[in-house]
């Protein structure tokens, strides 16, 4: 079973930012799907909770240079 997390991100100012975040999340172990919406500033991530925690997803996004406002 996978879980779904919604990361609310700020700081993405172009389409390349969106791709950087998506690809950064997709390369993480346990991430099954990652889709970033530029307009809503949300990343929707399907992940295996046995392999990765939502906090780690948020940490990754911060390491890429963006702010994570909230994780739902
Ligand atoms: Mo676009 Mo985002 O040039 O950090 S990649 S602003």
TrEMBL record:
<feature type="domain" description="HMA">
    <location>
        <begin position="3"/>
        <end position="69"/>
    </location>
</feature>
<comment type="similarity">
    <text>Belongs to the cation transport ATPase (P-type) (TC 3.A.3) family. Type IB subfamily.</text>
</comment>
<protein>
    <recommendedName>
        <fullName>P-type Cu(+) transporter</fullName>
    </recommendedName>
</protein>
């Amino acid at each position: 079973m996978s879980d779904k997390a919604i990361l609310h991100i700020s700081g993405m100012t172009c389409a390349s930012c969106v791709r950087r975040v998506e690809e950064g999340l997709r390369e993480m172990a346990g991430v099954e799907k990652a889709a970033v919406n530029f307009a809503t500033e949300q990343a929707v991530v399907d992940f295996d909770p046995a392999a990765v925690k939502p906090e780690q997803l948020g940490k990754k996004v911060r390491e890429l240079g963006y702010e994570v406002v909230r994780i739902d």
